[in-house]
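Dear support,

I submitted the protein below through the web form. The confirmation email said the job was done, but the results page showed an empty box. After a refresh the structure appeared. I'm attaching both so you can tell me whether what I see now is the final result or a partial one.
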Amino acid sequence: MSQITAGMVKELRDQTGAGMMDCKSALTETGGEMEAAVDWLRAKGLAKAAKKASRVASEGLVGIAVAENTGAVVEVNSETDFVARNEQFQDMVATIAAEAVKAGGDVETLKAMPYPGSDKSIADYVAAMVGTIGENMSVRRSACLTVNEGVVANYVHNQAKPSTGKIGVLVALESGGDAEALNAFGRQVAMHVAHSDPLALTPAELDPALVERERGVYAEQARDSGKPANIIDKMVEGRMKKFYQESVLLSQTFVIDGENTVEQAAKIAEKAVGAPVRITGFVRFKVGEGIEKEEEDFAAEVAKAASGG
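What the results page shows now:
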């Protein structure tokens, strides 16, 4: 049997996209024959996918779909951005997003639903795609917004193809006015959310623990100034007002005009819409946010595989 070198392992990985240890095992099993090793990996199918399941999937795409008065957003992760540029992966994300409209924002319900055109659930279809594409993938999260009367507008940033990209935003707007004008304004608000990343729609919807933490920091800063207690209270309230202006959607300066708050912009939009406009909710998904990513050292990975580690 020929010696399995790091170069051989890398060559097989480049050809197949399989993991380093899987490539080393394939070459070992086939006596170093490259073509036979490729076939060995192909024959493993989902067995290879099971090994991949421990790998961190922090890349991928966000998909968005809107049907009538409901909008849905999903995040489907992969290990590398290379897979996110794969058209087959993009189509899968768009399909899952369309199904998410029916799931009401519950990701477990979504994963249990049938994948269109197959005999598999969405979860099982994604698992099968792991074996086909060669990377760990997962449906990580989903959310929905619904309006009684109005529109759910959307915006996708860094778009890979229509309705899929790196940041996806939904904005719910209640209004009995012109739907086209309302949707146009809603898309602008969605673009604002993608850019400004607000924490909540209103101050009342902010996490109370976060508000108290901010207030405590500002109080400590104010006390260090040595000012009288009544001045300190005013300083804290002033800084909290600024915190709300920066963190709450309706209080943020609308990036589209740079002058009005988002709430004021909604009042201005009422003229074009022809009726009162009320923003009732938003959702913003960014690929990989909150996932602890592993920093990979490719040279160390090759050396470990070559040494049998």
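Response: this is the final, complete result; the empty box was a page-load delay. Residues 229-247 form the longest helix (19 residues).
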